[in-house]
Write a structure and sequence with these properties.
Elements (H helix, E strand, L loop, with lengths): L1 E6 L8 H15 L3 E7 L9 E4 L5 H15 L5 E4 L6 H7 L7 E5 L3 H10 L5 H8 L3 H14 L4 E4 L5 H7 L7 E3 L20 E6 L8 H13 L4 E6 L5 H7 L6 E5 L3 H8 L4 E4 L8 H8 L4 E4 L11 E4 L4 H13 L1 H9 L11 H6 L6
Parallel strand pairs: 1-2, 1-4, 2-3, 4-5, 5-6, 6-7, 8-9, 8-11, 9-10, 11-12, 12-13
Amino acid sequence: MNILIATGIYPPEIGGPATIMSALVEELKRARHEVIVVTYGQPSMKTDGVVRVPRYGSVLSRYVRLARVVKKVLKSDMTVLVTDVFSVGIPVRLALMGRRNRLVIRLGGEWMWEDAVTNGGLRVTLREYWAHHATGLRHRMKQLVAGWVLRRAERIAVTSDILRTPLEHIAPSVLARVVTVPNVPARDDCKPAPHAPYGELRVLYAGRIAPVKNVPFFARALKQAIEAGAAVSMVFVGDGEERAECERILHGLAHVRFLGSKAPHDVLNLLSETDLYVLPSLSDVCPNGVLEALGCGVPCLVTSEHGLPSGTGGMLEFDPTDEAAWTEVLIRFASDRAALDTVREQIRLPPPPSVTLADVVTASSRVR
């Protein structure tokens, strides 16, 4: 089968979608499918089977460039997979006009809420947004465009049932085409080092340092814990528009490092030297980083607004607006390793999904 994957990011760029799409490409190639990837990035970064479209210019110009590339490489028998509705979904939808290619959409996040947080200045969770803030002409226009893209898809793979709520508002007619395909955790790539009962509590955050990730909130909680005497060694991996704010908050504190973006294997190496992984996001639909950490035997401190499958263990959940609670648990774990070990003993990974993304992509039916 010929498959075209359009994704916003792809290795060596860091991020959950990049990691997942790279693994999917390898899986499809092992099954002898022909795969080509179209993504945003530097065209000078040459990789076999990957076409990179530059990000410069306006949103409209980026969409036009990506649509042209998709039309150029598209074959009549190709199944097309896109990884979001807007940044690649809109240009692919344009490229498919008048074509009968099968379209599959994978949704790993909630784009309208994220835009409202990133560009609209809201600091609310996903559920709060749809309950109280999903209003106005701008929002309605986005819903119309999203519905136009979604209704073209034969299948829509979501990483969590949380995403059915926005779909009910945007295009209820597509719900019958939705299948839940959770992220698959890494299980064998990381071998954690022995956890010392004494010494600094080694904490890791890995991901975008963007508004929806709520990292400055965690930085303030961390600062209070360190100033209260907690022995914590903190590593931040990733980059984004709020990195400078986090560095300002934590300026002058010892044992706090910002490493910038790292390749996935580097993150796994860091996990082998980590006692606690943190995810303070306002909401996180299905956080791949938490699954990787749990797969490496590292307990996690996570937002209560997540979409991980029920039965996942080894996490403590806290309100992503309760700074005092996050500070308190950091202080407790830094001074009481037995409490952290208790959480570690409760680590339970969710079972593998009954249907994989590769299954959805390679299904033989076609759009009529």
